[in-house]
Amino acid sequence: MIPGLGQAAPTATFSAPTITATVAVHELRPESEWRFEVAIGQKIEVRIMSGTAELFGTELALNHVYTFRGTKSSIYTWHGCRIEVTGSCEEYTAEETPMLQYANTHFALEKLRDEAHQRQGDGPRVMVVGPNNSGKTSLVKLLTAYAIRTGRQPMVINTDPREGLLSIPGTLTATPFASIIDVEQGWGSSPTSTSSPVPVKLPICYYYGLASPEDNTKLVKPILTRLALASTSRLAEDQIIKETGMIIDTPGIISQGKGGYDLISHIVAEFSINTILVLGSERLHIEMQKRFSAHRTSTGESITLVKLDKSGGCVDRDDTFMQQTQEAAIKEYFFGDSRSTLSPHTQQMGFEDVTIYKIREANALSFLPGGMEEEATGLYEKVEPNPGMLHCMLAVMYATTSDSQDTVRDASVMGFVYVSEVDDKKRRFKVLAPMNTRITDRPMIWGSWPEASMSVIG
Ligand SMILES: Nc1ncnc2c1ncn2[C@@H]1O[C@H](COP(=O)(O)OP(=O)(O)OP(=O)(O)O)[C@@H](O)[C@H]1O
């Protein structure tokens, strides 16, 4: 193993020994929210001393010590509570929240699920749209948590490549949620960790490999179609998931302009969306009304549009924060978290042992009439390992090296490797893999998202 690996909090050793952790007790009134931000590399511990409290819809247990690292989040109480906080963070308490609206949305969805149960049909297929940092992911989490608390099993779908859901950024996933969300981990542990107290959830995972869906619409659209097919057939296998339905998170960028609206239409069509929740934008709500008021799903249903307020707690996350979150997700994938340590394997291979496809940024090619160049050259370019790949992630696909590019694109992801060394002279390279599985007979995809990251082995 490479020395220095698996250290979760590299700043810990530098803290001055005389500083003792601060302890504060907050008394929250009913229907208020304690909002907090913990810097990356820092942690706080929170204990609910009395009353009831929840984090994005997931109930917090009394007297359990929860640890939060590098996060922006909030604890809400319907009936009032007292919380003890150890450690320092930026924090304040808010009395005004859109929680009643959000809870009512859950109850409206519950009505649809009960109806679905009675006719043994499909539950609601909900899409959440809104600009960047309008609270889409937090709302999806809350609706997921409330559904689980009601005994449901929602299929949660992430179409935002910027952030992974139980997966690496750059992937698009569908995950059936049967057990509670792990509040300390965001969504929960990644499937590579094994000893999490919360049961592991296994996402159906596809790889897009670019930061924005608008970077290559010709690649993202068929992947979304594939994701819709896979999740619809998973739904059909299981009555509880089927009647609970889907909750879909979307990238903020597609709510911000014309090209994006086409992607919204694509998701609406492919996933047969019948409920759209619009967060925090009057203009977007009007645009959605224009586009979808006369729309009918394949089974003739109309679309219900609901406008919801943005929470005052939503915070912008700057590039540094996003980058650090991304690196933390990658590190966790290979090395586990503070609760379970993983031991990744290093594999050494010759340049000629592997098949690697680099994603073309297709939208940059569209200067040729009718996209001719792209048709002639394909979505991916076959490349040899090269120094440009150093510190990048490669997606190992469930396909064979002789498969066509379209088959590789449509394949689900088997796992990821991290390129830790490239020796141009000896024509050999090294990767870090979560397991010692043979990967040379699988095609791999090299994208630009997640970005190359030194700190994974630093
Ligand atoms: N009520 C709240 N209190 C404190 N923090 C919050 C609250 N709601 C959301 N946040 C935080 O604000 C940030 C943005 O929220 P969120 O990720 O839900 O937005 P988003 O619309 O999904 O963003 P993006 O478009 O970038 O994916 C997150 O760090 C989230 O944890």
UniProtKB/TrEMBL annotation:
It is found in: Nucleus. GO terms for cellular component: mRNA cleavage factor complex. Residues 342-451 form the Clp1 C-terminal domain. GO terms for biological process: mRNA 3'-end processing; tRNA splicing, via endonucleolytic cleavage and ligation. Residues 27-116 form the Clp1 N-terminal domain. The keyword Magnesium does not apply. Residues 130-335 form the Clp1 P-loop domain. ATP binds at residues 33, 72, 133-138. Belongs to the Clp1 family. Clp1 subfamily. Component of a pre-mRNA cleavage factor complex. Interacts directly with PCF11. Polynucleotide 5'-kinase involved in rRNA processing. Required for endonucleolytic cleavage during polyadenylation-dependent pre-mRNA 3'-end formation. HAMAP family: Clp1 (MF_03035). This is Polynucleotide 5'-hydroxyl-kinase GRC3. It comes from Hyaloscypha variabilis (strain UAMH 11265 / GT02V1 / F) (Meliniomyces variabilis). The lineage of its organism: Eukaryota, Fungi, Dikarya, Ascomycota, Pezizomycotina.
